[in-house]
Amino acid sequence: MEPLILERARHPISRRDIDPNVLKILYRLAGAGYAGYLVGGSVRDLMSGKAPKDFDVATSAHPQQVRDLFRNSRLIGRRFRLVHVFFGSQNIEVATFRKRSEDFADAADPMIRHDNTFGTPEEDAFRRDFTVNALFYDPRTFEVIDYVGGVADLQARLIRTVGDPEVRMREDPVRMIRAVRFAVKMDFAIESATRGAIEHHCADLAKASIPRVVEEIFRTLNVAGADRALILMEQLGLLEVLLPEISAHLKGGAAAGRTLDEAPAVRNLAALGRLIGAGAEPSRGLVMAVLFADLNRATPMRADPASRSQLLDQLRVRGFSRADTEQMRLLLEAAAHLTAHSRVARRLVRRPYFAEVRTLLEMIAPTYGIDLGAIDRFLAGPPGPGGRNRGGARGSSAAPGGVDSASSSDPCVIGDSIASAGDSLRDGFSGAPAAAGSDPAPGRRRRRRRGGRRRRRSGAAESVTPDAEGQRASHAESASRDRVDEADGVEAPPLEPTASGSEWTAARVLADWPHDEEL
Length: 519
Hints:
The protein is built from 21 helices and 14 strands. Mean pLDDT is 79; it is low at 388-439, 457-468 and 478-519. The strands form four sheets. It has an eight-stranded mixed β-sheet. By secondary structure, the protein is an alpha+beta fold.
């Protein structure tokens, strides 16, 4: 098949728009006698007048040959054997041309499991997912090479699979999510046959690699049109497979006569998309918190711990990490505290995730009419009459150790409560005397002070003067009778003089004291 070749005058790609390190790789490959092209999304973005986020290189050199050619490189991957070439912190991916997978796939199960059969540039173009991602740029001739009609689809603003869409979606179901991402990112439409194949085979996503699916979900929602991505995934049936809780929540709103565009979850993601469009890079926990914010308001996690645990467990089974799900939970619970002006809300200011909580509230506030100014005034004002003190709460019952029983399960309170309980224990067992005229706290045992200076425990003898010898011996005898351990009732041995009769030793005292097994 003869490719469409666009000469330099017929396309907008300039070498000035290509990373210099990428050009170094391409020129070294050409100097070693290998074909090397700029491929994939970088050519697509350059043809659309956008700055590529990264650059990919395809070559006729095999992975080990590329590794031998670049000392600053390493081999990676199992399914796709690739080479990463390092320039400081920058990694540039170099792949070898490969053949079409359907030539070797089982007709009953066309899913790709091995893809290391090397081929020609034309065969490599026909094995790619979408036509707009199958364009090549040759830096030697400055030409764009199109084997699959990608230039026409760029002009028509269409996302179309390369080859039969029914086969291409079955051999790699993750392509369904990628189609949504490219359509939203580039503001393209999904071609009708490709759309029909996605709707028909969306259940095959359950067979795909879980880490790849989760990665693609976050990449799809981390675009400026995150709200449109959610709507398109729901319309194509993908959301019911990927996030059934969100899909059921959206369907419940539709049953009440509300369109998808009017759904609060979609409006929250629209705010997230505007934030991303402004250049922000939200964490995965924050993205999940925005996505689940409306579902959480309908069924608050704090009000139903069993439902919260079930939701988090289900998300982890689907591949979402514990770190991301726990961060989502913390952000949603903290936002609920701030919105309700609860007594633990002021503690959140000291939490490391408070900045993300504030960002979350700014995104969802227009949807629910949250008054951010009132929250700021509440945080800046003095504690109310129901505020907490260290070790307990006024006007409420407290659990032992100073932990408030009403909020002892709250993660925002537990840390401070533990610190408060630790202070209480130290106050109770440090042996400090109570203030004059004050009674010991009820239920707290008061330990007897052991008078006199602290004796050295280094084993060295502590000398006393002969004038004070009699007084010292009398005091030691009296103290030994009074020093009784209150917990076990073990009497301390009396201090006895040494053979010289002029000094006492700490070593003798420790030797006479009962051991642990005797207690």
